[in-house]
Amino acid sequence: MEKYQEFLSEILISEESLKRRINELGEQISKDYANSSNLVLICILRGGVMFLTDLMRAIKIPHAIEFMAVESYGSGSRASSGQVRISHDLNTDIHDRDVILVEDIIDSGHTLSSVLELLSSRKPRSLQVCTLLDKFERREIEVFVKYVGFPILNKFVFGYGLDLDDLYRNLPFVGVVDEEKYKLVKSKQNE
Ligand code: IMP
Ligand code: MG
Questions:
Q1: Is residue 53 part of a domain?
Q2: If I label 171, which of 17, 72, 105, 178 is the partner at 20 to 30 A Cα–Cα?
Q3: Ligand 1 site residues, Cβ closer than 6 angstroms
Q4: How close is the Cα of 154 to the center of ligand 2, in Å?
Q5: Residues of the chain under the 50 pLDDT cut
Q6: Active-site residues: which are they?
Q7: CATH number (domain holding residue 90)
């Protein structure tokens, strides 16, 4: 198996910076929801998992967690097409609850926008978004995001939950892919 060092162009966000910023987000959320009695964090699988598990440890008030999996049509392309299909829905009713949607990254905004529409139709008491990364330049549809870990420029990133062709989610940092080198490594593999 190829090693990520061969196509890592830079470490964009180190393990230490992630930890620091996620603790800040946790503190902020703990303050903002101090009076909530039914907070639930909804994690979008699979990219948001690492972020969720660190964020929930940084949140000092009681809360539940739930998972949801969505697939955007025409995967293969890296920006989503605008249509999503729910492949795993919540196991709980969010009616009248305070909901925070936890995302790894917002790119075009289509995935988020569809999920928000679905969730708000279930009439939660409140609904906000917390994303680790925000590729704000790429937005095609406007979405309000209350909590942002790091705004980033338009580069393809991997690690800390984000995958590169389904691998490398386990890396403890967020790295930038050198797309040329990555293509080379992949083509050698297929020879
Ligand atoms: P959107 O619907 O275009 O906002 O796409 C968001 C989804 O695209 C994220 O949840 C990720 O799964 C994926 N994505 C977008 N940019 C990246 C990236 O740089 N690395 C890994 N996944 C990404
Ligand atoms: Mg995702």
A1: yes
A2: 72
A3: 47, 72, 79-80, 104-112, 156-158, 162
A4: 16
A5: 1, 76
A6: 107
A7: 3.40.50.2020
46 prior amide bond cis, ω within 30? yes
The pLDDT, as a whole number, for residue 188 is 85
The total domain count for the chain is 1
CB within 8 A of 20, min separation 6: which ones?
none
- Nearest residue by C-alpha to atom 12 in ligand 1: 47
Secondary structure, 3-state, 62-107: CCEEEEEEEEECCECECCCCCCEEEEECCCCCCCCCEEEEEEEEEC
Copy the structure tokens of residue 119.
């969730």
Ligand 1 atom nearest the C-alpha of 135 is: 16
pLDDT for 67-113, tens place per residue? 999 987 655 455 566 678 899 999 999 999 999 999 999 999 999 99
Q: Is the pTM above the cut of 0.90?
A: yes
